[in-house]
Design goal:
By secondary structure, the chain is α/β, with parallel strands linked by helices. It has seven helices and ten strands. It starts with a strand and ends with a helix.
Length: 193
């Protein structure tokens, strides 16, 4: 089970995710309590091993915002809504993680790997697991939206995703990651399969 913890906004959050054994960490560059600057993301992720993907999480960014993040932070992957990717000019070598949202129009052809999320990111709103399960049979789906240490096992059993992504579900207060919750979430996700 591939596991990502999103909304990294401190060195403590990053080190907690690394100790828990995640596959990827996300840095949010969209309006959010978890928003960081490209300079902060670069600083917080300076000691991250190459095997851990550093993902730039954006939402309807301008080309200028994307360029700044790519130039300064240099992420391993860019994550944004799939419609955004139709408009942006990106390096051909940059992997992307398109976001598809429950209740919205889906692309005619599913991406090889994508993140499936509720209508609004970072709110703790659970995505539609039934729709997610159908999509997970067709492609590599990373389930996000409303996941936490208590429901991630059920989510994985219901959806059978390629991976899971958590943000608000591992926080003590909005915007502040809880190291213990991160550890429990990752452990639960790894043993749920």
């Amino acid at each position: 089970m591939w596991v990502k913890v999103c909304g990294m906004n401190s060195e403590v959050a990053v080190s907690s995710a690394l100790i828990a054994g995640v596959d990827a960490i996300g840095f949010v560059f969209a309006p959010s309590k978890r928003r960081v600057t490209p300079q902060q993301a670069l600083r917080f992720s300076s000691g991250v091993p190459a095997r851990i993907q550093r993902i730039a999480v954006m939402l309807h960014p301008t080309q200028q915002e994307v360029n700044e993040v790519l130039d300064i932070f240099r992420p391993d992957v860019l994550q944004t809504d799939w419609e955004d990717l139709l408009e942006l000019k990106l390096p051909t070598t940059l992997p992307v993680l398109p976001v598809l949202r429950a209740g919205r129009e889906l692309p005619a052809e599913l991406p090889k790997r994508f993140l499936f999320e509720g209508a609004v990111s970072g709110t703790g709103e659970t995505a539609d697991w039934q729709q997610a399960a159908e999509l997970a049979r067709q492609s590599e789906l990373i389930l996000a939206g409303g996941l936490n240490p208590l429901n991630v096992t059920d989510a994985i059993k219901s959806v059978q995703p390629f991976g899971v992504d958590v943000s608000s579900g591992v926080e003590s207060i909005p915007g502040t990651k809880d190291p213990a919750k991160i550890f429990v979430f990752v452990s639960a996700a790894r043993t749920a399969v």
